[in-house]
Amino acid sequence: MLQIRRSTIRLAQKTRLRPQRRQETTSHAASAGHAGPPHSSHHPEPVNESFGRGFYITLAFLPLSFALYKFSRSTNDSKEPAAQPLFTRMLQSYSEYKGRWTERNTLHTRMVEQAANDRNLFQSTPGTRMIDLKFPEVFNSGSPYNVQAGQTANLDALFAHYEKKNREDEEKFQRKREARARGESVGT
Q1: Burial 130-157 (b: 16+ CB within 10 A, else e)
Q2: What three-state secondary structure class fits 46?
Q3: 63-77 burial, b for 16+ CB within 10 Å, e for fewer?
Q4: Using CA atoms, how far apart are residues 30 and 27, in angstroms rounded to an integer?
Q5: What average pLDDT is seen over the chain?
Q6: Strand locations in the chain, DSSP E?
Q7: Residue 27 scores a pLDDT above 70
């Protein structure tokens, strides 16, 4: 910004009209300070200056703005939109956004409250300790190497439980198959 200002000033100084000076011959006496001032006066002639166009525009604008204000005011005090002042009607044309923003803010507040309730629910609920296993061999899915003594649990009871459960399921399936083969109705 400063660079633009400097270059603008230089350009203005170059293009400014400089008054023509009359070159006077200087003598030894004039340069030594013995000569008096030249006989021409250095004061410019008086010029009649007008106020300018901006002054008259401003002067005309003041009563016009007052008249416009009086024109825009309503004469009666009714609440109808057509009887309202012009500027009030212009401002009320933007009031439809007020309702839209109110709806958005209400919806946003509800969403934030619901998110806070969900977060509170999930963080305050203790987790389950039961893990549903698809097959009991999942316990032995680790590496068989570098296993320290006592690191793994005794899974014999677990294997026995699942073997018993599988045997019962197989027997139930076998009974259903035999009942179908005999044509009896199968109950659960």
Answers
A1: eeeeeeeeeeeeeeeeeeeeeeeeeeee
A2: coil
A3: eeeeeeeeeeeeeee
A4: 5
A5: 79
A6: none
A7: no
